[in-house]
Amino acid sequence: MTAQNSAEMTVEERYALVRSIGEECIQENELLNLIAKKPNVRCYDGFEPSGRMHIAQGVFKAVNVNKCTQSGCEFVFWVADWFALMNDKMSGELEKIHIVGQYMIEVWKAAEMNMERVIFLWSSAEITRNANAYWKTVLDIARKNTIARIKKCCTIMGKQEGTLTAAQVLYPLMQCADIFFLKADICQLGLDQRKVNMLAREYCDLIGRKLKPVILSHHMLCGLKEGQPKMSKSDPDSAIFMEDTREDVERKICHAYCPRSRQTKAEVSEDGAPVPDEDKNPVLDYYQHVIYSRPGAKITMGGTTYKTYEELEEAFIEGAITEASLKDTLAVELNSLLEPVRQHFAHDPHAAELLEKVKSFRKGDASTLLKEGAPLEQSATPLAVVWLPAVIQMPVDVAIAISDAIKAFLEQHSNGEVVLLLPEWTAFSCGEVTGEEKNINAALELNLALLQSHYLKKDGVRVVRQSQLILDNPNDYWVAAINAGRRNLLQSLGDACGEFKSAGHLVAALMYVADVAMLRATHVISVSHERGYHEIVTKFFEGRVTVIPAREGNVPPLHRPEGSVASADDVLFLGDTDMDVCRKIKRAYCAPNEAENPVVSIAAWLLRERGALTMERAAENGGNVTYTDEALLRNDAHSGALHPADLKAAVTKPLLESCAASKAVLASPEYKKLSQTLRQAAKKLPKK
């Protein structure tokens, strides 16, 4: 069969050629529609540079790519160097991974892959160039899926759940994002990639996208030994490799398992992994999927020519072909396919150099510790980072805790600096403030302005947007996040942070580490809801980063101490109006004869801040009294000398004074608009 130009082929011929690649197609009608209607169909496969290259990845892949391009498709190879880093290949060294990737491209060239419509894109370079679009897609996929759903995809790395690192959970999120980032119409990968490809189709449903990627999954060659449903790079005799010598091929095929049994379509598990089958004949498997996968292939044995695989299998089952003849002929055919590759690496200086380097990588000690990158370069002067909470309304208590911690840090470190980080991307990943970027930005900008107008010391405080921190150096940022993931088992992160609501919350945990690394921080100011994340930071940096807990509880919730927040009236917020404050304090729990309740706590805080707190009351009720000692105030509240009504009146007055700052902020057109945006966002939040 002579290769036709796609322009000379009918739609049915082009479809049949592309469809012949896949052992499974989801969905066939969608594939036919693509071939018929789209001028430039884009196929995609990703490969992880990881050392040895077996014949299925070499010759079989070259044949499949040629079928795609012959039918008019464009084929994009995603050189997954970052994925190899996450999967701890080549000791986690990106430079070595790049060399292996270049070696694999040379193999395909030598294996007669038609490169005319083939594109190789390196993930690290492309992702860095398009960091905003790529990582936003990753984060969106993460926040829309549970950890349990993503873990189902992790067999694409051959990892069991109990040994999964956080980085290996990040892997399928990125692989799913690749499909959309590359604008792939067809995912042309192995059956073992089924679950992550299905994740992409499910994501289309979640975002309301009608045009889904077609999944065209090719066959997985079985191992050469009995009971090996798939090849293993860790067992050199389980497969033919592209660098095998003539003698290697002959020896391996000679010893291959070869039962004289009729072959059936391989069963696969739910995740696409082949199921062990004692009747599976790897010699026949190689004939069917390597030798006969080439258009027009035919085999002659004992004077008989077999034009189809089915004819060959039938002859072997019936005894017309001996096992020795079957194996000898296969060895000859495989060596003829590999000979151009051998010659290329023997005579091309660049290819030969790459091969020698790849071989040298394998000689390294397998027990070598993973390269974790250079140690953290910390700021020469004390530098603390604090994350501004992404919330529609910031509680006064949190604002005070953050501001007090910043003030204390700067007083203790005269040459220090505090970075107040606006975590737009972390909030997006966690779906905070409805998860919409407009609402997240509105919340951060408005709460920053309110915080600065009330309590925040501006001198020594630098405001940094997380988006800018990431996009200024996306490569280093995400390598830091990936390294944090490599260092932590998924289970250990769950132990520190509690159950993750979504995969997005897991990614957020890794981003905390990357934030600290990129800012070169020496200290972290931590509010209570972040303590688990900051435990991970401390562990990753081996104690070189000091966590400063922000002291909360100055302005506690206004309900009974044993109760829980039931409504917005239980919490004082920075943006509260005069009416809000008066209503909330009036309703606040404040029983007589108690030294500890919400209103007493607020009074004690105001006393500490101002140095004194005056209770204004009629002469017949004891007259005005000014407290300068917190213990005395609490004693009088406990004894009944201080009436709850007088206490509430005393705290209401200074709280109303602080409302003036909020009014000034909210009066400006800019912040009034942000406030309106957040009111609309609040309506979208689920009712508690």
From TrEMBL:
Belongs to the class-I aminoacyl-tRNA synthetase family. The keyword Lyase does not apply. The lineage of its organism: Eukaryota, Discoba, Euglenozoa, Kinetoplastea, Metakinetoplastina. GO terms for molecular function: ATP binding; tyrosine-tRNA ligase activity. GO terms for cellular component: cytoplasm. This is tyrosine--tRNA ligase. It holds the Pfam family tRNA-synt_1b. One of its GO terms (biological process) is tyrosyl-tRNA aminoacylation. InterPro entries: aa-tRNA-synth_Ic, Rossmann-like_a/b/a_fold, Tyr-tRNA_synthase. It is an enzyme of class 6 (ligase). It catalyses: tRNA(Tyr) + L-tyrosine + ATP = L-tyrosyl-tRNA(Tyr) + AMP + diphosphate + H(+). Catalyzes the attachment of tyrosine to tRNA(Tyr) in a two-step reaction: tyrosine is first activated by ATP to form Tyr-AMP and then transferred to the acceptor end of tRNA(Tyr). The keyword 4Fe-4S does not apply. Keywords: Aminoacyl-tRNA synthetase, ATP-binding, Ligase, Nucleotide-binding, Protein biosynthesis. It comes from Trypanosoma rangeli SC58. Its EC number is 6.1.1.1. SUPFAM superfamilies: Nucleotidylyl transferase. It comes from the Eukaryota.
